[in-house]
């Protein structure tokens, strides 16, 4: 009987479309695991290319460009499969259930930003919008300290990786999401076309 309820719980979690950017079912989970396993030796920055958005005003796509990564359920499962494959382990349904449960109800975006002062991210505010609707910021994580880059001016001297968690209730999986960051009068915008992202 206990096994029946556990199986039912997993089925509900895996077919819950309200909390995902794309519906996750058994076939989608297998596809995500396969992607992670097949690309386990790919450099992480290349592995993440399908989920990246560069800042709208970026003049050159290079290491110094502000960029954001949308952590969809597919990507989270693919990353888990990649890591497990590198460790010589096989991804399984329990791991998938754990990964999906941790992020149910949220849109998670990681942003890598560059600036010219050590405190350039201090006071950064984030908003996520879609068709005029605003998705509330649940939590933001900023680094305790920015990282000094190896570059010299005119390239940015400091970098920071920040994480933003938003409630996903009411999200439309077929429309564009806009992440808008503001800081000291500067605005950075990142667009994600959800119809084209797994």
Commentary on this structure:
Keywords: Signal. Residues 1-22 form the signal peptide. With 198 residues, the chain is of the alpha+beta class. The protein has one domain. Helix content is 28%, strand content 30%. The chain contains five helices and ten strands; from the N terminus they run αααββααββββββββ. Strands 1, 2, 3, 6, 7 and 8 form a six-stranded antiparallel beta sheet that branches. Strands 5-4-9-10 form a four-stranded antiparallel beta sheet, with no helix packed on it. Strand 4 (125-130) and strand 5 (133-135) form a beta hairpin. Helix 2 (26-38) crosses helix 4 (73-86) and helix 4 (73-86) crosses helix 5 (93-103). The relative contact order is 0.18. Mean pLDDT is 85; it is low at 1-20.
Low-confidence stretches: 1-20
Distance between the termini: 35 Å
* Main β-sheet description: 6 strands, antiparallel
Helical fraction equals 25-40%
Shape descriptor reads: globular
DSSP summary: helix tally:
5
Overall structural class, as computed from helix and strand content, comes to: alpha+beta
Q: What is the domain total for the residues?
A: 1
- Beta-strand residue fraction: 25-35%
Give, in order, the helices and strands.
HHHEEHHEEEEEEEE
Mean pLDDT: 85
Query: What gyration radius follows from the Cα positions, in whole Å?
Result: 18 Å
The count of strands amounts to 10
């Amino acid at each position: 009987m206990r096994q029946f309820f556990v199986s039912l719980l997993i089925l509900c979690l895996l077919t819950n479309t309200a909390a995902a950017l794309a519906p996750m079912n058994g076939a989608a989970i297998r596809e995500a695991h396969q992607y992670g396993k097949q690309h386990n030796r790919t450099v992480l920055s290349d592995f993440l290319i399908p989920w990246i958005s560069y800042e709208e005003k970026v003049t050159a796509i290079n290491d110094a460009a502000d960029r954001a990564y949308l952590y969809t359920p597919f990507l989270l499962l693919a990353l888990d499969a990649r890591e497990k494959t590198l460790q010589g382990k096989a991804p399984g349904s329990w791991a998938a259930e754990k990964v999906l449960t941790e992020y149910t109800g949220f849109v998670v975006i990681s942003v890598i930003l560059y600036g010219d002062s050590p405190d350039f991210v201090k006071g950064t505010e984030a908003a996520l919008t879609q068709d005029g609707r605003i998705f509330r910021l649940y939590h933001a994580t900023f680094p305790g300290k920015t990282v000094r880059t190896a570059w010299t001016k005119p390239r940015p001297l400091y970098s920071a990786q920040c994480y933003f968690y938003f409630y996903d209730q009411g999200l439309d999986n077929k429309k564009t999401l806009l992440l808008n960051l503001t800081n000291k009068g500067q605005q950075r915008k990142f667009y994600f076309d959800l119809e084209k992202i797994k």
